[in-house]
Amino acid sequence: MGNRITDLFGVQYPIIQAGMVWASGWRLASAVSNAGGLGIIGAGSMYPEVLREHIEKCKLATNKPFGVNVPMLYPDIEKLMEIIVELDVKIVFTSAGNPKTWTSYLKDKGITVVHVVSSVKFAQKAEEAGVDAIVAEGFEAGGHNGRDETTTLTLIPAVKEKISIPLIAAGGIATGRAMLAVMVLGADGVQVGSRFVASNEASSHPLFKQKVVEAGEGATQLTLKELAPVRLIKNKFYNDIQKAYADCATVEELKSLLGRARAKKGMFEGDLEEGELEIGQVAAIIHEIKPAAQIVMDIMTEFTHAKAEVKHL
Ligand SMILES: Cc1cc2nc3c(=O)[nH]c(=O)nc-3n(C[C@H](O)[C@H](O)[C@H](O)COP(=O)(O)O)c2cc1C
Fold first, then answer.
1. Where, by residue number, does the polypeptide cross the bilayer (predicted)?
2. Are the beta carbons of 98 and 48 closer than 8 angstroms?
3. CATH number of the domain that 24 lies in?
4. pLDDT confidence of 168, banded at 50, 70, 90?
5. Are residues 181 and 78 in the same domain?
6. Using a 6 Å cutoff on CB, does residue 183 contact ligand 1?
7. What does DSSP assign to residue 285?
8. In the chain, N or C: fewer CB atoms in 10 Å?
């Protein structure tokens, strides 16, 4: 299938595997790229030299296009960008920051730049900053998110109305039916996160993957809005946060509760009680850990069938 997103990235399907801390290393990114989607290495949890290793391994594992996601909160961001340029990465997704900061630097080096937003205002800012495409991520999504709680169903048509560059929908998309739905709303492609956490190739801890397939409706909540809003599974750590809120904790107290390396502890080391477990609402309909290529194929097959089905409506 061909459209603005497949043309922009040079891929077969407009399915982007989200860059995700502690989940998307070279194994997942190359598996998705080899299956015809766009695989993304999540640099947010990597030291610069670790990112170097992942890019080099990804290049050996696929000759298809792949990208790197760089959250702008990253403290040593200059070093990441130097490695990305040095290793000739062709596609960069930036998130969690001002799109003006890095877009022209990357574009000057011939890199395709995509920025992740959760509101119309920031989508317009990203377009003004010169990015090639936008990911609009709704409230359902796993990981860090906007404060406004705008759902994917509302966000996609609202962003579509105001921008003209290609639009990628994210948040709550794990199936071909959901992909069709957001494309009807105006998206040119989808960014899929949670579904790929429950894949064989994700670097997340097996216990976390198992927790994701067991998670039901209502298992997650967006919290820590005072720091950086994040959607988490309701485990002991989440309950500790709720208790801190009930005790009127200050921002400093919340910061110290969060501490360091909570996300690594939960998602990479598999501490399901004390760790931070980032996942989207859509975990409720993810029941199986599968190979990434199978996930891409399942989404495309369901998309094609659903498209034929809705002709009768
Ligand atoms: C475990 C996890 C880690 C994530 N880490 C990042 C990240 O490092 N950078 C980023 O831009 N988004 C991150 N996200 C958000 C995803 O990129 C994506 O937009 C989101 O997962 C889409 O919603 P979904 O989970 O409903 O598919 C993360 C999401 C999850 C589930």
1. none
2. no
3. 3.20.20.70
4. very high
5. yes
6. no
7. G
8. C
Tell me the per-residue pLDDT of 1-57, one tens digit each, with 9 for 90 and over: 899 999 999 999 999 999 999 999 999 999 999 999 999 999 999 999 999 999 999
125 class by beta-carbon count within 10 Å (0-12 exposed, 13-18 middle, 19+ buried): middle
* Residues 271-312 pLDDT 10s: 999 999 999 999 999 999 999 999 999 999 999 999 999 988
Is the domain of 83 the same as that of 158?
yes
Contact 190, 179 (CB under 8 A): yes
Identify the domain containing residue 221 by its residue range.
Answer: 216-281
Nearest atom, ligand 1, residue 140 CA: 26
Please tell me if the CB atom of residue 229 comes closer than 6 angstroms to any atom of ligand 1: no
* DSSP H or E run through 240: helix 236-246
Is residue 310 within 8 A of residue 246, CB to CB? The reply is no
159 lines ligand 1 (CB under 6 A): no
* Total domain count, the chain: 2
Identify whether residues 113 and 162 lie together within a single domain.
yes
Nearest to 160 by CA among 188, 194, 126, 191: 188
Q: Is the pLDDT of residue 260 over 90?
A: no
Residue-level pLDDT at 1: 83
233 within 8 A of 286, measured Cβ to Cβ: no
Q: The tokens 């959760």 sit on which residue?
A: 118
For residue 270, how far is its CA from the centre of ligand 1 (angstroms)? 18
Query: Quick check: CB of 235 below 6 Å from ligand 1?
Result: no
Structure tokens at 258: 């969060």
189 and 266 share one domain: no
Torsion of CA 177, 180, 186, 189, to 10 degrees: 100
Q: Is the CB of 18 under 6 A from ligand 1?
A: yes
Residue closest via CA to ligand 1's atom 15 equals 143
